[in-house]
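Researcher: Re-running this chain for the archive, since the previous output was lost when a drive failed. Same request as before.
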Amino acid sequence: MSQSYPNAVAVFCGSNSGDEPAYIHAAKSLGVAIGKSGIDFVYGGGGKGLMGVSAGAALEVGAKVLGVRPYAMIEDGKAIDHASGSSVFLNEDGREKVETIVVNSMHERKVEMAKRVRGFFGLPGGFGTFEELLEMTTWTQLEIHEKPVIILNAMGFYNPLRDLIQAGVRGGFIRPENEGIVIFIDGPSDLHEHGTYDWGTAAMDVLLSWKKPRDLFPRGFNWKKQLGGKPQDALQAT
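Model: Regenerated structure tokens:
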């Protein structure tokens, strides 16, 4: 299965900033690197926490930034400057240049983001971030799309996730060849250097050099089929 994708990446991360300054540094570094690369920045559309930090950094260097938000998450009273279908510009301080795609559900949010990008970056976050990263990983495993999940492991935040994936391999629940769908960028071995490390450049290098593992287990599913025989976009099967 050969696919081509838009010149954009998705960033999944927390709507809080976390307790380590290195998390904020990694978010800024990634936003700057994406913006300077000329690749569009796609994210969940929030203005707070690491989401706001990374998107703001991308905006500052001239990136096109696209947020995808469920309608329920648009605060009451936020005026809409311009609307074209589901695309709007919201009157939110510091986010006037962010184009926002409004969807009806959390799941539609992930589908809308996934279809617009060539890969996914993960920064520290909570339950929502974990779920997003793992669902994108599952879609690659099932060959719904062919896109890497690249995790910026600032301060070793995602070490437990790597341990969990490896436990799945050892336990016979994850095929060894599929472990490589998720790529961890660990940064310097000295955690004191994580607050100055160039996370963004390292992440972009991985993205631009990524190729689908040749030994990725082929499932052979045709996700473009649906009941009734009408063709559909593969992501609609999710």
